[in-house]
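**User:** Once you have settled down, spend some time on the protein underneath, comparing sequence with structure tokens, and judge whether sequence predicts the tokens.
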Amino acid sequence: MSESLSQGLPSLLLDQTWNIKLYKCNDISFQDLKKEGFNCTNSKKKPDQLIAQGLEAKKVIIAIEDKVDDAQLEEAVNQIKDNYLNALPETKFFIARAGSRIKVLYRLKGDMLIEINTLNKGFQVTCFGPRVITGENQPVIENLKLFASQALKNNEPANNDFEINPQEDYYNPIKNKSRIIKSLWQKIFVCTGEQAHKCLATFVELLVYKGISDAGLLPRDYRISTLAQEDVEDSLWTYTNSIRTHISNRIFPCMPEEPGIIDPQGFAFTGQETTFKSVLNDLETLGNIAHKKLDPDFKRRVLETFLGSSNREGKIKNGQHITPRNVVQTIWRMANPSEASRIIDLACGVGGFVLEGLNYPFNFNYRNYNALGIDKSREMITLAKANMVLHLLDVIAENPTMNHIAEINRIINRTFLYTDRNGTGTLAEVTRTAQNENEFVVNHPADYVFANVPFFSSGVSEIDKSLEQLGNLNTFYSSSGLGIESRFIKYIVEQVQNMDPGMAFVIVPEGILKNVNSKTRDLLKNKTDMLGIVAFPKGMFENNNWKTYMLIFQKKTDVNKYSKVMLYNVEDIGISLDQFRAPIEKDDLITMEAAWEQRLAGESADPKCAFVSRTEFNDANKWSELFDVFDNEEDDSISVNESVGIFGTFQIELENEIAEMNKNYTNMFNYEQNVSIRLSDADYFIVGAPAFKPTIRYAKLNKGKYPLYSSQISGPVDFMYSDEYPPIMLENEERDKSSKKQIISWNIKGDAAKDVRVHDEPFYGTENRGLIEIISPSQVNIEYLELFLKENLVRLGRFSRANEAHVGKVRDITIEFPANENGLPDWDKQLEIVAAYKEIQKFKSNMIELTQRMKETVEKINILK
């Protein structure tokens, strides 16, 4: 035994009642620790620190591998796997620390480790760090005490979250009665004829029926305990013809034209009395779910769990993009809204974002609940309202009077809004201002917007037409980009403009960050401050493999003007991204949340986090390129089904570009009148060569700041300065922008006449450079002349490497100008043509890039995926 062990290990008492201590092992092996009563094996490996309970026999609750450098975190995790798991077969919790970075790990069956999030009253906390063993780091020590006490009770993490300070014991049917829940689902699924959506609607409806029955809201003959009895006949008939109507009309009536908590067409059972009885008996085995404190995690996940089952067994209607509930929880914790905040999800689905405030740790008062969910799907609003009933079962059971139930029903109906309006949904929820018929305000301003916006390409033009038919509402979205998602972003941007703090967390497809059409990015830059962008992995949403991002932005404020923008690259979310959604080791949502809390510092040791300056962000052409800093090597192949959706987006881009071009520019270059003027006409032009023609060798001997142009078409060949021979237009350095002289130059040799450019700053030219100065700038626009020469000079002069564009030849070129009624060059028409030319150049560039993206998409198709 080593000398240090015989003298006693350094330790810190964490809990005197339970004799829980933190031990610093000082290079002592597990083998020697076992001799001192620690419940470990005879391994010769050496742990860093252990938290153990007991005096003689010491049960190791948490084991810690501690490194100094931030970059050693994965090394610390690997050492836990290699050195600790076999040596500590009964220990479930492990901590890997490297400098400022920490991972908390939990052991599943088969020695699989998963990363977990330690929470104190629902919010992320740190449970280890420097100066703990010395007793100096009191905030962390207090968290560690709570962590150890809960670990000692054999509490388990729920969906990668471990609450170190739980408020009360909860009941979770999915966890406690998982076999019954699975049996229920399978029986209902068979009775629907394997219609996934009807199966889900039926399951949720019967769960609500179970809850309100347990709460005592139904007459005794209508309660599930009665209908489940073997000697009660026609239970199915009684439920379908009497009880469903009673629930819909008497207990939870809906507003006119609004869906209620029961879908009239969404019930699975038609004549399967025996199976229905079996389902009722299965529900009864769950116990009284109204009088038990339902686990918030059950409320969050009951619909997600069965939406996932639906997607695996038959595609669920409108359920393709349900946001994983751990993502919902993370976003709520990052935003941390107050109870008074107006919170809106404008494409709410089953209501996950909307209802999270009713759950622990927020526990907002349901009577004053200030959230709103909007959707154009009747089925989704029905599920969302039923979901809210499940969330409020405990308060329903506490006071099951009809007045109280009527109050709860009013709250449910005001919390969820169904709006279709000819397929436009939320997008038509705008109102024209009285002051200006071309200005609109959104009907639903929000302090916070949490949304996973719809994203699809087909059908967008039909929605735009419907908006137009509703009173030209489409003009409100004229500044938005391509796809339905860009219109939702436009709506969200306006929602937050006059609110406090006016913040949005919005999940969007990759196209928003990388499309050639930058309208949506420009809108966001002009009207909001981007605070962060989070990249999510492909496959995060069940039933599709889209790459998505989360944009975090706020209305413009002076505080954010110079702040950095956080980028975070989430690669793992704690579960596998296949159909099984099984636990995996890594969960980047945990470290992403920690990085968000530290964002104001503008730096992070986390390799998956980066910060860019506001200037760099605003200058970025495509935001997706900012993520190149992470240098991901991921499988970017796509399935045939995905390619169809992507090509649909390309089709819309192409149609929009062509329509814009056809509408505005096809007749721009058809002059009603024109005038031809030779470049040799001294009333309009001076065509010649530089007075001083330095060679490239001369430039190398006379280095300076002024560019030297020659036959090279890509730009200057060098930079120079000579006191004896000042550059052309040196006087421009003393002039403001409006009074600067301008000259056109072209290359004489090489790819002759292919480099035509306008100069407004001093420069030099070799003998291979020609110059054109405009004598009548009030009649000849220099940008028009430049574009005419760029497009026509080579063709008109038949210039090439063999036929050089010497000054004399260029003087003979004739320029065509649009003419005014006096037969002189029309200045205004020239300006119009210049503007149109720039748009056409942009169109050409967009078409080239679109073609390249189509080619890249074709190459990514994996027909076996």
User: Anything to note?
Assistant: The first helix runs from residue 3 to 6. Confidence is low (pLDDT under 50) at residues 310-320. The chain is about 35% helix and 20% strand.
